[in-house]
Every structure is written in C-alpha cells, then in structure tokens.
C-alpha cells in the first residue's frame, strides 16, 4: 500500500492577487461635507440679507407712519370744522321741528354728563327740502 | 316738515348739508391739496407747524368736541397753507416733481428718492427745514438718507 505524502494546502508561490471587492465607480463631485458646508454658507448669507431687508422695511414703515402722523392735525382740523358746521345746522333744524313741543331741550344729551360723543344718528330732511 | 332719524352709515339718501358756517366763526380757507402733495410736504408741515399741531392735538386730548378746538384748528390750517405757499414759491419745480412721482408710485416714499433728495435740498436751502423721522435708530443714517437701499 503506497502512502500519499501529506502536504499542506498552501497559496501558490508569490501569493494570490488581491480580490477586487470595491465597485469601480468614478469619483462624482465634491464630498458630502463640502456640499453641506456650502449650502449652510449660502443659506446664512441669505438670512443675513433677509435681516437687512427686514430692518430697512421697518424703517420705511416708520417713515410712512410719521408722514401720516404729521398730517393728522391738519386733516382733523378740517374735519372738525365741517362737523361743527353740520352740527349747528342739525341743531337749528331740530329746534325748528320741535318748536311746538313744550319743554324740549335742543341738542340735549341722553347721558348724564357733558362728555362729547359723536352723534350716532343724524336727522336728515326729506329730499325736496 | 317731517324727518326720520337715520343711521348715517345705513342711509342710502345722499345728503350734503348746504348750510354755511355760522358768521360767528372766523373764515379760513381749506387746504385744498390732494393726498400726494400733502404726503410730499408732510415732514415739512410737521417741522414748520410743530407748535400749532401740538397745541391742537393737546386741545383735542383735553376735549374731543369739534367746537372746542376750532381756534387751534384754524391756526393749524393757516400754517399749513402758509407752508405750501412758501414751498410753491421757492421749490415749485422740485415739489411738483416729487409729488407727481408719489402719485405715480402708489405714494411710496422709497420709490421716489431721487426727486425727494432734490426737493429736500431745496427746502433746506430756502426754508431751513429738514426732514427728520423721530424714533429711528440713532447709530444709522435715516432711511431717506441711506446710500444703497435694498428697496428702491
């Protein structure tokens, strides 16, 4: 009976070549970190500009408000004169209408104090008057 | 003669009261200017008529009755008329350019900076009035003087 000499299974001389396990893909564009930083930087600049614009809009609003505030006395004075003229005319009309009613006080307030209130109702003469 | 009390806001009857002002009240011309010239001149009215305006508003604060502040109101109107006359006298061209621009641009100040700058300079040299916006941040130029505005 012949015996086969036992031999250990060994790599071939010079060793095996390395196994290619990575996919062979070309490099595509900048890395994730670079992209993230770039997007963050662009957004930060954008928000900075938004802040500047908000500040400017606030000042424009202030300018507009003060432009109107300066005109309030003028417009109010004109309106007051007109209201006064119409009130006087209305009271005169009321006195004329109610002249036969004894004890009628023209323009008497329904409240028990003298504070001024805008009249809620006006007496309008009929159309042909 | 009959008359019905009507809520003025619900009334469908057009009613223009033709009764003139009682003779006991001194006559005063109304300002007669439309919104654009008034807005164009607003800051100068505020500066030129400061005392009259504040007096009037304090009076109104005292009593809201229209009859109470007629005298102060006349002063306010006369002062504004006086200022508008002076503006027309000294800076007619610049004034008109500015308010026409306001009229054509939805009455936004920021869209009429170029005519406004000329107008302000003219008023400054002729009447020594300066446009000043109160309560603006002190460390920055006022918005109408900003060199490179984002909105224009």
TrEMBL record, chain A:
Q: How does it sit in the membrane?
A: Single-pass membrane protein
InterPro entries for this protein? GRIM-19
Major localisation: mitochondrion
Origin, by domain of life? Eukaryota
Q: Name one GO cellular component term.
A: respiratory chain complex I
Cellular location(s): Mitochondrion inner membrane
Mark the transmembrane ranges.
32-52
Question: Which protein family is named in the record?
Answer: Belongs to the complex I NDUFA13 subunit family.
**What is this protein called in UniProt?**
NADH dehydrogenase [ubiquinone] 1 alpha subcomplex subunit 13
UniProtKB/TrEMBL annotation, chain B:
Keywords of the record = Disulfide bond, Electron transport, Membrane, Mitochondrion, Mitochondrion inner membrane, Repeat, Respiratory chain, Transport
User: What are the record's GO terms for cellular component?
Assistant: mitochondrial inner membrane
Organism domain of life? Eukaryota
By its UniProt entry, which InterPro entries does this protein fall under? NDUFA8
Any GO BP annotation:
mitochondrial electron transport, NADH to ubiquinone
Localization (cell)? Mitochondrion inner membrane
Report the function annotation for this chain.
Answer: Accessory subunit of the mitochondrial membrane respiratory chain NADH dehydrogenase (Complex I), that is believed not to be involved in catalysis. Complex I functions in the transfer of electrons from NADH to the respiratory chain. The immediate electron acceptor for the enzyme is believed to be ubiquinone.
| Similarity field | Belongs to the complex I NDUFA8 subunit family.
This one is known as NADH-ubiquinone oxidoreductase
């Amino acid at each position: 009976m012949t015996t086969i000499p036992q031999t250990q299974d060994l790599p071939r001389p010079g060793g095996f070549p390395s196994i290619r396990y990575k996919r062979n893909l070309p490099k595509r564009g900048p890395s994730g970190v670079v992209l993230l930083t770039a997007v963050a930087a662009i957004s930060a600049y954008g928000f900075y500009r938004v802040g500047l614009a908000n500040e400017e809009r606030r000042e424009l609003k202030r300018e507009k408000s003060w432009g109107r505030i300066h005109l309030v006395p003028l417009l109010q004075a004109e309106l007051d004169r007109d209201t006064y003229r119409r009130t006087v005319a209305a009271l005169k009309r009321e006195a004329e209408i109610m002249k036969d009613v004894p004890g009628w006080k023209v323009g008497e307030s329904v409240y028990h104090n003298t504070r001024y209130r805008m009249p809620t109702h006006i007496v309008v003469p009929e159309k042909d008057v | 003669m009959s008359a019905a009390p009507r809520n003025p806001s619900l009334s469908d009857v057009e009613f223009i009261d033709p009764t003139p002002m009682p003779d006991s009240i001194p006559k005063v011309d109304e300002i007669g200017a439309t919104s654009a010239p008034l807005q164009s001149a607003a800051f100068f009215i505020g500066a030129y008529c400061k005392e009259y305006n504040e007096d009037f508003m304090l009076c109104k604060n005292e009593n809201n009755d229209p009859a109470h502040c007629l005298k102060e109101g006349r002063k306010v109107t006369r002062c504004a008329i006086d200022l508008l006359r002076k503006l027309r006298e000294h800076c007619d061209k610049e004034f008109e350019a500015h308010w026409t621009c306001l009229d054509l641009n939805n009455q936004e100040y920021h869209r009429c900076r170029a005519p406004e700058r000329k107008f302000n300079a003219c008023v400054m040299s002729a009447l020594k009035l300066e446009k000043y916006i109160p309560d603006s941040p002190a460390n920055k130029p006022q918005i109408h003087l900003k060199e490179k505005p984002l909105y224009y």
